[in-house]
């Protein structure tokens, strides 16, 4: 799979004692998923699937009779892709293609734009950033967009396809109470739900992991919908939707959803390798004194003439860098990074503010738990924990910050009178970092395992 990557030169920003208003222009650029518009399903494959589904409906007639309601409403779909618990991205997806509404070779999506390709009959939701790494580590999952019955499932097929002709896909098909059917294609092999044909699933229930099986150029979900008569439906409503007049979404999102998917730090530039090689992400949240830190942002639906505000905070909370970067064009997904040289040991914070939302990540410079002081004698227990962690000792802890394994800030508590415990009970199982700061701005970071 080829990606479009625009790269520019930049210098190293030295964080040496004052807030900097201008930083060098970053490295990075656009990432294009499926640039060659490879078709997800051939016409012969689609016909074969539809024939199988009709036969399955006949076999399930008795079951359908028991659940059928009078005047059933069309589905009210929720978004079918979500992040797996235990990972800390701000978001894990982007949209490459909508349904094509043109009967000719022209490209017209529901919003009268061209975010589609000729004959495309579904919505393609791809993983971003680092889609192959996400697939390998099963960081994103497919869920039922509406209550339904599994009418057919197909698993066990090769799931690292990069081109047309990738064979059959791993997929689940749900039959809804109004007779409509939703398709969930390209899933990762051997990750599909253990439920079988005829079993019911609830809206939001796990169906499998996102993969790249079948005709696919990378990990994504192909979501396709048909009504009870077998007519294609585009769940999005818009001026150019010629298939249905109303939205089939519980809450229809915008045509574009500008967002910061991730704020990360790296030991070296991220590299997007040729499909299906896992990307060289080089993600790290710990650096030795004197190391160069690659501070990166990963955008979805980057809008032109919009500005992202970026900040680097020292361990004592003061600003080491504070600057803005204005985007000059639209990209469905993009990445940008700056090279910085922190000059102080301790826990730093890298922040990006876009469209009113701030996404932050902490990273440690020097030995984890630097600043030798009475914090080192503080007892932090139990560890592992199922919830509450006690902070016991003579030191007055005035601030506690909890971050996940990727460095994303989960929670911050401040109390000048002292903090005696931290509550992780609402967090998913996994590894977290608890940073305790004393009144003298010295800090200590402890790895906590949430069981």
Automatic annotation (TrEMBL):
Residues in M23ase beta-sheet core domain copies: 138-235
Keywords linked to the UniProt accession: Signal
InterPro entries cross-referenced by the UniProt entry: Cell_wall_metabolism_enzyme, Dup_hybrid_motif, M23ase_b-sheet_dom, Secre_tail
Superkingdom to which the source organism belongs: Bacteria
CDD domains: M23_peptidase
The Secretion system C-terminal sorting domain, residue ranges: 380-447
Coiled coil: none
rRNA-binding found in the keyword field: no
NCBIfam families from the UniProt entry: Por_Secre_tail
Protein name, per record: Peptidoglycan DD-metalloendopeptidase family protein
């Amino acid at each position: 799979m080829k990606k479009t990557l625009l790269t520019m030169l930049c210098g190293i920003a030295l964080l040496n004692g004052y807030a900097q208003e201008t930083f060098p222009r970053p490295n990075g650029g656009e990432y294009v998923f499926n640039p060659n518009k490879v078709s997800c399903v051939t016409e012969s494959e689609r016909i074969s699937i539809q024939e199988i589904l009709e036969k399955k409906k006949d076999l399930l007639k008795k079951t359908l009779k028991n659940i059928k309601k009078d005047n059933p409403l069309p589905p009210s779909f929720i978004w079918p892709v979500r992040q797996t618990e235990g990972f800390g991205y701000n978001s894990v997806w982007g949209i490459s293609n909508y349904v094509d509404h043109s009967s000719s070779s022209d490209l017209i999506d529901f919003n009268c734009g061209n975010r589609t390709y000729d004959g495309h009959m579904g919505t393609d939701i791809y993983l971003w950033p680092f889609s192959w790494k996400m697939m390998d580590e099963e960081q994103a999952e497919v869920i039922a967009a509406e209550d339904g019955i599994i009418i057919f499932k197909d698993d066990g097929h090769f799931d690292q396809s990069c081109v047309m002709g990738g064979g059959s896909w791993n997929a689940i098909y749900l039959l809804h109470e109004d007779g409509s059917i939703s398709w969930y294609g390209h899933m990762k092999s051997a990750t599909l739900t253990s439920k079988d044909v005829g079993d019911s699933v609830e809206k939001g229930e796990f169906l499998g992991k996102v993969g790249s099986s079948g005709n696919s150029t990378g990990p994504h979900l192909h979501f396709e919908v048909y009504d009870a008569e077998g007519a294609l439906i585009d769940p999005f409503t818009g001026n150019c939707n010629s298939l249905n007049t109303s939205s089939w979404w519980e809450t229809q999102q915008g045509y574009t959803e500008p967002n910061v998917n991730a704020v990360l730090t790296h030991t070296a530039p991220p590299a997007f390798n040729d499909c299906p090689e896992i990307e060289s992400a080089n993600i790290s949240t710990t650096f030795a004194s004197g190391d160069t830190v690659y501070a990166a942002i990963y955008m979805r639906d980057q809008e032109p003439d919009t500005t992202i505000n970026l900040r680097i905070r020292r361990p004592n909370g003061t600003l080491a860098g504070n600057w803005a970067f204005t985007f000059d064009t639209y990209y469905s997904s993009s990445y940008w990074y700056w090279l910085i040289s922190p000059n102080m040991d301790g826990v730093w914070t890298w922040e990006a503010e876009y469209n009113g939302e701030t996404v932050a990540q902490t990273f440690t410079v020097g030995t984890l738990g630097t600043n030798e002081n009475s914090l080192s004698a503080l007892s932090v227990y139990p560890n592992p924990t199922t919830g509450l962690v006690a902070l016991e000792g003579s030191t007055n802890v005035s601030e506690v910050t909890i971050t996940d394994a990727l460095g994303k800030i989960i929670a911050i508590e401040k109390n000048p009178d002292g903090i005696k415990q931290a509550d992780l009970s609402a967090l998913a199982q996994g590894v977290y970092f608890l940073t305790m700061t004393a009144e003298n701005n010295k800090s200590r970071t402890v790895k906590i395992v949430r069981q």
